[in-house]
Amino acid sequence: MAASEKLQDQSTKQTKDERGTWFQGASSECTDALRPSVAPWRLVLLGAPGVGKGTQAYLLNQRLKACHLSTGDLFRAASKQSECELSPAMKSAMDHMRRGELVPDATVWEMVRERAACIRCSGGFVLDGFPRTLGQAESLKELMASEEIRLTAVVNYELPLAEIVARLSGRRTCEKCKAVFHITGQPPKVEGVCDRCGGKLFQREDDRPESIKVRMAAYESSTAPLIKFYQSLGLLLSVAATGTPDEICAHTISALVARTGVAAPV
Ligand code: AMP
Questions:
Q1: 27 CA to centre of ligand 1 in angstroms
Q2: Top-level CATH class of 3-157?
Q3: Which residues neighbour 246 within 8 Å (Cβ) at sequence distance 6 or greater?
Q4: What φ, ψ does residue 201 adopt, rounded to 5°?
Q5: Which residues line ligand 1 (CB under 6 A)?
Q6: Residue 204 catalytic?
Q7: Percent of the chain with pLDDT over 90
Q8: How many whole angstroms from 78 Cα to the centroid of ligand 1?
Q9: Looking at 115, 171, 172, 178, which residue is catalytic?
Q10: Could you tell me which residues come within 8 angstroms of residue 127 by beta carbon, excluding any fewer than 6 positions away?
């Protein structure tokens, strides 16, 4: 049985209606091929929690106008729905997320399949937080093969562990536009208020110390093996996640240009 079918088979047989409501969260909107490109970049971003994948995905999305798909954002949008609007699988997914654990592959895959339009975007895509397990990576590979499209590269952001923990515990996120700040490294002008949109800043439940430990363990056991997986496919590109977000984004693009030999699709 194909990997994607296996995941589908294990899934909790949610109906479209059950999924419908939570799927309408603001971040679930496809930013879709704003600028169709003849040679779109199709990227997966890897790296431990807190390494800055979300920020880089946002900057790459702005720069490349490629579709940005974040499974974490989709789950956070779902978590804002009232309990009774969530299917049992999504309620369970929310519990996993609050504890800092990975959501089961079957639930994640259901959600990604709903967003297959992002994978087909003619402007390319930036996947942030997906895939996170070998099962998810195999399913993505199959889906892309069936659509006859290929990944351009898998960018692996690297940062020492101590810095990751410091970044995560001081991180504050805007509840409206999802801009990310840091209480010491990048404080907002007014405490607790987003510089970009004036929204309220909050600490993600899974950025609390007890959840950080669980998330790092989940990363080591489930996600780190993806580095070897994509290395063996010749797709891995490591980038140091040090410097300002704009510097890291510039390094990412120049490393991708050097790798592909193709100018950035802007
Ligand atoms: P993120 O914002 O990417 O750090 O994701 C936040 C949380 O959502 C994670 O700690 C997981 O609980 C869940 N999550 C997001 N994406 C995935 C995925 N691809 N596989 C499993 N769980 C995920």
A1: 14
A2: alpha beta
A3: 59
A4: -90, 145
A5: 49, 71-72, 75, 96-97, 100-103, 108, 129-130, 132, 136, 206, 215
A6: yes
A7: 40
A8: 12
A9: 171
A10: 43, 44, 45, 69, 140
What is the amino acid identity at position 240?
A: A
> Sheet harboring 180-182: ordered strands across?
180-182, 171-174, 201-202
Of 75, 90, 215, which is best to mutate to test ligand 1, by the most ligand atoms within 8 angstroms of its C-beta? 75
The atom of ligand 1 lying closest to the CA of 128 is: 3
Each residue's pLDDT tens digit, 137-189:
999 999 999 889 999 999 999 998 888 888 888 999 999 988 889 998 889 99
Distance 263 CA to ligand 1 centre (A): 31
Q: Please identify, by atom number, the ligand 1 atom nearest to the C-alpha of residue 130.
A: 19
Residue 171 annotated in active site: yes
What tokens does 169 get? 């515990």
21 in helix, strand or coil? coil
215 belongs to the catalytic site: yes
The tokens describing 226, both together, are 């993806």
Tell me, what DSSP letter sits at residue 155? E
User: What are the residue boundaries of the structural domains of the chain, listed by start?
Assistant: 3-157
Q: What is the pTM of this model?
A: 0.79
pLDDT band at 2 (very low <50, low <70, confident <90, very high): low
Phi, psi of 242 (to 5 degrees): -115, 150
* Beta strand spans in 11-80 (E): 42-46, 67-70
| Paired tokens of 82 | 């009232």
Asked if residues 18 and 87 have their Cβ atoms less than 8 Å apart, the reply is yes
